[in-house]
Design goal:
- Helix content is 8%, strand content 36%.
- A hairpin with a 2-residue loop joins strand 6 and strand 7.
- It has 2 domains: 1-30, no CATH class; 31-76 and 86-125, Immunoglobulin-like.
- 8% of the residues are buried.
- It has one helix at residues 16-26, and strands at residues 36-40, 45-51, 60-65, 68-74, 93-99, 104-112, 115-122.
- It has 1 helix and 7 strands; from the N terminus they run H-E-E-E-E-E-E-E.
- The mean pLDDT is 86.
């Protein structure tokens, strides 16, 4: 059985980077924590919301590199001199990755009531028609 790829189709030219993005997303290792929502707010706006109860702003980082939005959380486990009779809430870390299309920009982020909101906007490209001159060869 042969693996069908974007680059194997004769009408799809220059999509090698898209194929790499799809493979990278599949390997990103996103687990089920933390849960998240993705909303569309209008034609060009999106919001990713992650449930990050117990995290403070300094525990979180948001980076954008090569069209990949990476949200990380790292809590410090403070073992003062507390004695737990039951410990069901553990300090933990996470990483969530999202691949953004060309023209999608992060416009801001806010932490509110245990929810981290990351707002995105997609710029609408102008339609361009280009005429190619045919030269005599």
């Amino acid at each position: 059985m042969t693996k069908l790829t974007f680059t194997a189709h004769p009408y799809l030219l220059g999509f090698e980077q898209l194929e790499r993005l799809v493979e990278r997303t599949a390997k990103s290792g996103n687990e089920g924590y933390p849960p998240f929502n993705i909303e569309q707010n209008g034609d060009t706006a999106y919001r990713i919301t992650l449930a990050v109860a117990g995290f403070v702003e300094s525990d979180l980082s948001i980076t954008l590199e090569d069209r990949q939005l990476v949200i990380r959380g790292r809590q410090v486990d403070e073992d003062d001199d507390r004695i737990f009779l039951h410990r069901g809430i553990a300090a933990r870390q996470f990483q969530r990755s999202f691949v953004l299309a060309d023209g999608v920009e992060v416009t801001g982020a806010a932490l509110e009531n245990g929810l981290l909101h990351v707002d995105l906007r997609r710029a609408m490209p102008e339609a361009v028609v280009q005429t190619i001159k045919i030269r005599k060869g």
